[in-house]
Amino acid sequence: MTGATVPHGGRAAVAEADKSTWAAVATMYRLTAGHRSSIAVASVLTLVGSTLGLVQPLVAKQVVDASGRGQVIWPLLALLGTLFVAEAATGAAGRFLLERMGEGVVRQLRLGLVDRLLRLEMREYDRHRGGDLISRVTADTTLLREVVSQALVDLVTGSLVAAGAIALMAWLDLLLLFLVAVTVAAATVVVASLLTGIRNASEHMQGSVGAVAADMERALGALPMVRVHGAEEREAAGIGAGVEAAYGAGVRTAKLASVMSSAVELAVQGSFLIVLVVGGLRVGGHAGSLGDLVAFLLYASYLVLPLSSVFRAVGLVQRGMGAYQRIDEVLRLPVEPTAPQIPKDRAPTLRPTRPSGSREQPVLALRDVHFGYDPQRPVLRGVSFTVPKRRHVALVGRSGAGKSTVFALVARFYEPDAGTLLFDGRPATELTRGACRRDIAVVDQNTHVVHGTLRDNITYAVPDATEAEIRRVVELARLDEVVDRLSGGLAAVIGERGSKLSGGERQRVALARALLARPSLLLLDEPTSHLDAINESALTSVMKDVAQECALLVIAHRLSTVQHADHIVVLQDGRTATGGRHEELLVSSALYRELAASQMLRAGGKPGTGKRGRTDG
Questions:
Q1: For residue 586, how many other CB atoms are within 10 A of its CB?
Q2: CATH-assigned architecture of domain 16-172+308-337
Q3: Backbone angles phi, psi at 227, to 5 degrees
Q4: pLDDT tens readout for residues 141-186
Q5: Is the Cβ–Cβ distance between 50 and 164 less than 8 Å?
Q6: pLDDT tens profile 301-358
Q7: CA angle centred on 41, ends 40 and 43, rounded to 5°
Q8: How many Cβ atoms are within 10 Å of 314's Cβ, its own excluded?
Q9: 436 in Cβ contact with 339 (< 8 Å)
């Protein structure tokens, strides 16, 4: 994972420690790593501007006293104007640096999240909803930008400026300062009592927003199904429940924040009125000068901004922690390892070497493989077979037999619970997942076609492919007619999820993309499921040609796919039941004969008498 700082320690420990404001501030500060110089410069500029502001009441005091004595005051007025302009200029420069720093932190977090999400273990995608994960990259990081760009510096500079104002107020009149301190202390008690509620409400709001994003992604991803079944109102109601939850949490956050803001405003305004009344009485009784009262009132009014910024920053930090908790959850999710996972009790084996003329290693071998997505519910209970180089091997079996799970293991999306996968004779644990995938291409039933041009989709695995290479796979996958039909040919935009293509055309695009990578092993999950009889026959011919270049492992549901395979592996209940050629299995295997006679293996795509249903394993 790159570009993000992740606090150390257990998840529960973090949650408990970060309940305090200081721990939350420390966590937010850690996010600014790499931007500390900008924070330092911005803080200095802000302090300089604030200091210039603190000097202005003293100059105003001199103006009032000099005017009372009939002295010339225009030089003092010029100085006051200069101080005002200088304060505005330094403040603007400091704020720009802070905003730029905030954007930099958000960029850093988003890059880290994107990198993390693209590398997560596949099991994590089974446990989390995609839309909710995406919202953590967008909505949650946006909330954090305001925290790191404003709240942290406001806490420091606001506290220092308030301390300076209080010191000068103490120098002018201790009694009036005491009265101000009492009202501010009352506001502080109110603010402290609201912080935990603000954080919890903010966290609930961000979670609800994430749920809305996940529900929207689900509905839009299946929009044809939603429309056909007239489920628009039902989906809108379900998503609306998440919107209402976000609204409720947002209103609660706003209510607590408004109470906090009102408490601060009442304290400041109350202290100002007390100073005005008590100070005025003291001036009338000759206990102080009018200039001192004016200066004290100005400092009391100047105290409003730093105190308000401090209280606001504290509330904002707690809201930011609600968002950061969700970001931190993603940053802690496990990613795929980049190094070989060699068992500690076994030394790595060397790539086997064989004398000239000896039998070469199969491109893939499974030896007594066991696996379950849930350890308590195994899917594979002992699968063994090999895929020789440049051979066509078919996997058949009833739905749930484990066929698609075998593909997921071969693609290294998951690791076997027991048993061994070998690539070119080497155990998978001695190879990185990237090294295994470089020699593999996959075409599954859920053909992944992304928004972009036809060329973009075909060259996804090989972006720098030549025109000759592209033309070759277009012809192999029988995409010539599609290229000619689309306005723009290969440069035509095919829409979101390939909406401008038919199911069969999308499958052929995926096949062309796979062939362009020139894999050693091509995995095909029912490649003829979306093809008509003519294109199915053409693809069968293509598979014969492809088998001359690389090995084929095919999940097959049709006789046209199976009967031309060099070897057929029959799976039953997660185990390898038998294997052989089509003609042999028709004689030796009752299970295979049953599959061949039923809808599971239908000749030429024509319906049989068995039950219809999805047949991936």
A1: 14
A2: Up-down Bundle (1.20)
A3: -70, -45
A4: 887 877 777 777 777 767 777 777 777 777 777 777 777 777 777 7
A5: yes
A6: 666 667 777 777 777 787 778 778 888 888 888 888 877 766 554 444 444 444 444 4
A7: 65
A8: 23
A9: no
- The string of DSSP codes covering 261-287 is HHHHHHHHHHHHHHHHHHHHHHHHTTS
Query: Hey, do 16-172+308-337 and 364-598 end up sharing a CATH topology, with the first three levels equal?
Result: no
Distance CA 264, CA 191 (A): 8
Six token digits for residue 481: 């007619």
148: DSSP letter: I
CATH classification (class only), 364-598: alpha beta
Sheet containing 426-427: order of strands: 380-387, 364-371, 418-423, 426-427
* Residue 287, token pair as written in the block: 């206990």
441: enclosing H helix or E strand: strand 440-443
Both tokens of residue 614? 């999805």
Q: Distance (Å, rounded) from C-alpha 204 to C-alpha 318? A: 13
Query: Following DSSP, what letter does each residue of 372-400 receive, concatenated?
Result: -SBTTB-SEEEEEEEE-TT-EEEEE-STT
Closest by Cα among 376, 432, 444, 455 to 406: 444
Query: What does DSSP assign to residue 613?
Result: -
* Whether this model's pTM surpasses 0.85: no
Q: Which residue has the tokens 């939350």?
A: 24
Burial category of 266 from C-beta neighbours within 10 Å (exposed 0-12, middle 13-18, buried 19 and up): middle
Domain extents for the chain?
A: 16-172+308-337, 174-287, 364-598
Q: For strands 567-572 and 575-580, give the pairing.
A: antiparallel
Amino acid at 163: A
